[in-house]
From TrEMBL:
Transmembrane segments: none annotated. Gene3D superfamilies: Phosphorylase Kinase, domain 1. This is Protein kinase domain-containing protein. ATP binds at K30. InterPro entries: Kinase-like_dom_sf, Prot_kinase_dom, Protein_kinase_ATP_BS, Ser_Thr_dual-spec_kinase.
Length: 51
């Protein structure tokens, strides 16, 4: 991934616009803070998005 732009920043971390080198497409990547509470919240978000 190549970071191209900052899309937003919040309590849990940052969202950046990235260029995915393998698929040649833009993606949004959420970068969370390195703390257990934020990690567990991110797992909940992944679970919701996967359904």
């Amino acid at each position: 991934y190549v970071v191209k732009d900052m899309l937003g920043q919040g309590t849990f971390g940052q969202v950046v616009k990235c260029w995915h080198l393998e698929t040649n497409s833009f993606v949004a990547v959420k970068i969370i803070k390195n703390q257990p509470a934020y990690y567990h919240q991110a797992l909940v978000e992944v679970s919701i998005l996967a359904t």
